[in-house]
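Entry 12.
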Amino acid sequence: MDEVTLETSNADRLVVGLQPVREALRVHGPRVRLVMVEDRGSPRLDALVRYAMSQGVAEVVRRPQSELDRLGRGVSHQGVAAWAPALRLHAFVPLLDLPDLVALAVDAVQDPQNFGAMVRSAVGLGAHALLWAEHASAPLSLATFRASAGAVEHATLCRVPSLRHALVEATARGVQVVGLDGHADTLLHDLDLHEPTIFVVGSEHRGIGGSVRRSCSHLARLAGTTTIDSLNASVAAGIALYTARIQRMKSMG
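Predicted 3D structure (tokens):
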């Protein structure tokens, strides 16, 4: 699959937090340039040092908490930071050929905690990709990496110039696009989610934008809800992905 570098060439990406750093080490191994660990006695930190060394990291250093606080810029670092390779973005269009496609599209979600949680749900529930518009959603930031609990290292990430155009292309290629809307007449579990499907989750305050909404094949609500944001956008995304997974598993059984 085609890839483009997310950051500038040869740039390092700061990651903080025990689980995010551990996953960066698991995926990138010796390509992690540096691991910085707080200089206090802690079984968990000591175990992280040993793991980093076993993964072939060339430089593992101990530093005071104040230095990690400065690097973290308010994001909880749990005493550890690492400089991992730049994330890569994947081309979206080739994914549309997958006969079992299930993906998550994020429309203008600005909260990095929500965005990171959606990445975590997408990876944990087997979504093939997560896509968003390059100018309309939370960036892939330190806070997003932390909120994903390391899942971002395993995700297929697709940043597109226009989410509406991407979804129009998807429907033209026979993929159903399901917008999650708490006021929709259709219940999500009444849809056939065996066919290639993209779920669309809207922003924390206004939901799915008008042009993106018009690009959806269906609008559907989760059973028992009147507003998506009453559940939190990332929770709604997780429920939708789980619903698709259960439908598909039942058909296989």
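Annotation: The longest strand covers residues 80-85. The domain at 89-252 is CATH 3.40.1280.10 (Alpha/beta knot).
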